[in-house]
Structure formats: structure tokens, C-alpha cells
Amino acid sequence: MQHLMRDKVVIVTGAGSPAGIGLATAKAFAAAGARVAITDVAEGSAPRRARDIGDEVRGYTCDVTDRAACEALAEEVLDAWGRIDVLVNNAGITQSRKVMDIARADYDLLMDVNLRGALHMSQAVIPAMAARGSGSIVCIASVAAQRGGGFVGGSHYAASKGGVLGLVKGMARELGPQGIRVNAVNPGVIITDMNSRAFDEARRRQIVESIPLGRFGRPEDVAGVCLFLGSDLSAYMTGSEIDVNGGIHIH
Is 236 a catalytic residue? Predict the structure, then answer.
């Protein structure tokens, strides 16, 4: 497994949280032999996490809502390592609002980070991938996009992640002839920094009882699927979405 991604260069966005999907994904790629660039909008958080993982991991501060910042990041990675093979669009936020309470600022914020951020970062790496004739883009969507929310996040969160699924399919269709694969991952209820305090004990028991596998998901559960989609093990997959939800939403 340590040679699965040898000589590959991977970017993972939103990887500054110590108990998040992004950091778990970065660790999985690093363990498979990749050189990994991790990003986060919080100043200094990604460089700190990178130092904890290993010598072949570098951390950068990047706001994915800023296309110029995304392009500058891609250039830094290319200057450092000469190539970009995989992008994992993980940066995202959630927000709980009833539909009548969603303000324009709330809607714009979630769309900017969750959907426009995925577009910006993809646009930043596509030229380098196209020049090599290969690449893999993995976008983290959500079970909320499939079932209209219902756990954490309001309708605008579900809409932003539904947009991610549409973006993935559109990019996969357009970029396939250039050798670039684009796929999505739909996590279910994964306990991370973002939602660890979202449920009281009664609600936690209620949700777990509805999950066929009998537990909440862990960031590592999603990371393994991202590694699969980024590697040649999934070489004939594009425009696909993989559910990582323990069976809470079977469709």
C-alpha cells in the first residue's frame, strides 16, 4: 500500500482541522507514498498539521472562495514538486437554518465555500493535469444532497452539496477526453470537529439505531474512499458518486 501513490502529488483542501476528513485523507495519501499539499483558510493551521504528518507533506493557507489564491497555490505546488496528480475538494462548511430563516448572506456563504470553492480549485489544477493527460479530482459532497438534509445543515447546505454533484458530472463529461477523472464522495454522518457537538445523547442514539452498520462514521472511512478514487485502482471511474454512510441512506 505504501507504493500505491509513489511519485504522485496530491492537494487536499480544508485539511487544517485535527479531527476532520481532510486531514485523515492527507494522512492516507501520505501513507500510500504521495507527496501531499494540504490547505486551510485558517492562518497557520495547515502548516502545523503538515509537520505532524511527515517530510513529504506541506501546508498552505488558502481561501478557496478566491480563485486567484487557488491559482497561486497550484503554482506553488507545481514549483515545489513539478506536477499535480490528484485534487481532493474537501473544504466545506455547514450551517443549520430553517428555510424561512436563510438570509442571503447565509446562502452566499455556503455556495461560495462548498460549491464555488470546488470549482475554483478544480480550475486551478486542470491545466497542469491536462498537460500531462491524466489526473483525478475528488469532490466531497454529502448524503444531505441525496436526501435533502435531515441531520446537520439546512436546505441551503443540501443545495450547495447537490450543486457539487452536478458540477462533478459536468466536469467528468467535459474533462474525460483530456484524461482527467472527476468523482464524488457522499459521506453520511461522520463525526468531525464540525459536528461533534451537533447532537445530544438521545439524538445520537436515535441516529445510530437507524444506521445498519450500527455506528457513526469516522474521517478515516471517507479517507479510504478518497484514496481509492485518487489512485489507479479506480482508473475507469468518472462521473461517479460513492456513498460512505453506513447504510443510513440506501437507494
Answer: no
Contact 113, 64 (CB under 8 A): yes
Say whether 172 sits in a helix, a strand or coil. Answer: helix
**Averaged over 117-142, what is the pLDDT?**
98
Report domain 9-244's class.
alpha beta
pTM greater than 0.85: yes
Catalytic residue among 60, 107, 157, 236: 157
Residue spans of the domains in the chain: they are: 9-244
Extract the C-alpha cell encoding 7: 511519485
For the stretch 70-112, pLDDT in tens is 999 999 999 999 999 999 999 999 999 999 999 999 999 999 9
Instruction: Give the HSE-up count for residue 150: Cα atoms under 13 Å, Cβ half-sphere.
Output: 14
Amino acid at 204: R
Tell me the Cα Rg of the chain.
17
